[in-house]
């Protein structure tokens, strides 16, 4: 399947385009936001994020007691499935996350994720090995579909930094299958 995912459309709305809480007739979108401030308290995890348009919004985790909270750091990108706008008691407008499975944390910036997605959208006319450039390479990374000519090149690329890129590319491949 060719990679045709767009991170700025129906399935990846900006914060301003989210439906209000309780008014979401459909499911099937992901709000992406990069964390720029952690304002968590002992009892509640709260983060300030920016979406792809630079709009700031709050993300507050409301998990049941005993449910582990994800490790989130400034600079990470939060992926919030089927997010809706929520009006908090303190007057803030943001996203209230109640289901742990609806949040994914990517240890990269939104800019880096968008750049990688654009690179993946460019079709390669030749089946070249990602490590050495050898033509007619047929082996693929199972997670992200990166091409390799041999297991040796794949292993060498893994230690050279593919591991981090693979996690991000794998998420993009998963979304491409789900939303295209």
UniProtKB/TrEMBL annotation:
An example Gene Ontology molecular-function term: zinc ion binding
Keyword Zinc-finger annotated: yes
Keyword tags: Metal-binding, Zinc, Zinc-finger
Domain MYND-type: 129-166
Protein name: MYND-type domain-containing protein
Originating species: Leucosporidium creatinivorum
């Amino acid at each position: 399947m060719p990679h045709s995912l767009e991170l700025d459309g129906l399935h990846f709305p900006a914060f301003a385009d989210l439906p209000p809480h309780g008014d979401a007739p459909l499911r099937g979108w992901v709000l992406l936001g990069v964390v720029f401030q952690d304002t968590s308290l002992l009892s509640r995890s709260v983060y300030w994020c920016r979406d792809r348009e630079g709009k700031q919004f709050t993300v507050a985790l409301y998990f049941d007691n005993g449910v582990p909270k994800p490790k989130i750091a400034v600079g990470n990108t939060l992926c919030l499935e089927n997010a809706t706008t929520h009006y908090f008691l303190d007057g803030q407008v943001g996203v209230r996350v109640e289901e742990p499975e609806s949040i994914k944390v990517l240890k990269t910036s939104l800019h880096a994720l968008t750049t990688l997605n654009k690179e993946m959208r460019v079709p390669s006319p030749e089946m070249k090995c990602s490590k050495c450039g050898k033509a007619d390479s047929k082996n693929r990374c199972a997670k992200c579909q990166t091409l390799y000519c041999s297991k040796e090149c794949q292993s060498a690329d893994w230690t050279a930094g593919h591991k981090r890129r693979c996690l991000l590319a794998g998420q993009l491949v998963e979304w491409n299958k789900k939303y295209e």
